[in-house]
Amino acid sequence: FDSHPYTRIIAYEQSIDNAIGILTYREFHQYLKIKSESNSENLQLTDFIQEVLYVPPMITLDRLLTKMQNKNIHMTVVVDEYGGMKGIATLEDVIEVLVGNIWDETDHVIIEEIEVIEEDQSYSASGRYPLQKLFSEIGLETSDSFEATTLSGFVLEQLSRIPQAGDTFTYKDYSFTITEAKGNFIDEVLIQKTAK
């Protein structure tokens, strides 16, 4: 685990086609800690390996997501028609296909700043822009609570569907227009104060 940034690896016997489970960073360090404290000869690393979920390459994303959620796992092994390992699919992979890129602590991300087009009237912001920070900067006061933490998530909540460039809606005293969208991800939104 020290030689790469991953928190989960496939454990296998003899060949990668014989995956026996998933070993997490946390479980591996728990194994090392218990082993050093107890000096037990009976303690095996395989005792700390999580069950592997095998899936076919043609599984739909919604079925895969449901299976992963039901089993509370973050990684699956995709097998070919001969039972050999074709690859892996992670929960992050599935979610990124459905809602756009997400970033973790190993990714280097620059959150784009909000651009003021016309003071107190018109703004352009990245879909990744933090929602509460955006509301604060444009002076939008609300007591509503949102599950979304980004502008992109807020737009998805308001539209209740996958948005496209040109889609627009009004919230409080502001209109929100999607100016750039790639696939399922909202790249840029134009925010304009509406006349009262």
UniProtKB/TrEMBL annotation:
One of its GO terms (molecular function) is flavin adenine dinucleotide binding. Keywords: CBS domain, Repeat. GO terms for cellular component: plasma membrane. It comes from the Bacteria. Residues 48-105 form the CBS domain. InterPro entries: CBS_dom, CBS_dom_sf, FAD-bd_PCMH-like_sf, FAD-bd_PCMH_sub2, Ion_transp-like_CBS, Transptr-assoc_dom. SMART domains: CBS, CorC_HlyC. Gene3D superfamilies: 3.30.465.10, CBS-domain. Pfam families: CBS, CorC_HlyC. This is Transporter associated domain-containing protein. It comes from Atopococcus tabaci. The lineage of its organism: Bacteria, Bacillati, Bacillota, Bacilli, Lactobacillales.
